[in-house]
Amino acid sequence: MKKTLLYFILLGLIVSACSNDTETTSQGKSESSSNESEAVEEQKAESEENAENENSHEEEIEEKAEAKYKVTENWSLVPIKEGANEDVVLLTIDDAPDKHAVEMAKTLKELDAKAIFFVNGHFLDTPEEEKMLKEIHDMGFFIGNHTYNHVTIPEVSEEVQKEEIVSLNDRVEEIIGERPVFFRAPHGANTDYSTQVAEAEGMTVMNWTYGYDYFKPYMNAEKLTTAMVTGEGPEVDVPYSLLKPGANLLMHDREWTKEALPDIVKGLRDKGYEMLDPALIKIN
Description:
- The chain is α/β, with parallel strands linked by helices.
- It folds into two domains: about 1-65; about 70-280, TIM Barrel.
- It has helices spanning about 1-65, 100-110, 125-140, 160-175, 190-200, 220-230, 255-270; strands spanning about 70, 75-80, 90-95, 115-120, 140-145, 180-185, 205, 245-250, 275.
- Strand 4, helix 3 and strand 5 form a beta-alpha-beta unit.
- The longest helix is centred in the N-terminal third of the chain and has 64 residues, at about 1-65.
- Residues about 1-35 and about 50-65 have low confidence and may be disordered.
């Protein structure tokens, strides 16, 4: 009898142990299944994000392909698509990023005014300057090529001309991940060769129709605002207005220009002009 009782006790212990093993295995399987499910969800979310980024990139390419304006021989912008607004002006900032370009970009961003920042390589020598350029680009502004060392192109050899243009494109791409699509020569002085190099690099060459902030009489925010909004520069022998639809406006990374910028944008808008988005300009 005692042996029989002992047998049933041992059998009960074995059954209980097997039951616990089964529960542990089931729990392990449940946790494994949960982890696998989370991994699948993460992978799905990542795939959706990648697809969204790809779609966004495709939309960006498509938008760039839908150019509505072109640069003319006199450097103004004219519509090439029916329905495009003729009353536009293009804002451009040269010699960036020196001291004020980031603040100017922030001002333009707040005003929802697009622009091209034409940069020089000698302003991209330090990590701080690289950060400034990236910040301007990340705010949505186009970065243009203004040569590496701001040389007067006709005064240097073809070898130097090419180096000045291509090396800056390389530098800009290194910092922001893309190459400039607009080129402006210092002083507006090109050669046939520099134009060929710029176009071979996939850039549209442009100068400007007017600008006044580099003339001493207009190194003052109030005077500069008046000159840019009216298009007149009587103190530098321009007593008539150069402000016309499609005007390509030249400004620089300067303190007085930074101070004048909000009133320049407001004044141009009050005259009925829209700030042209460079993304709508035909490249080459």
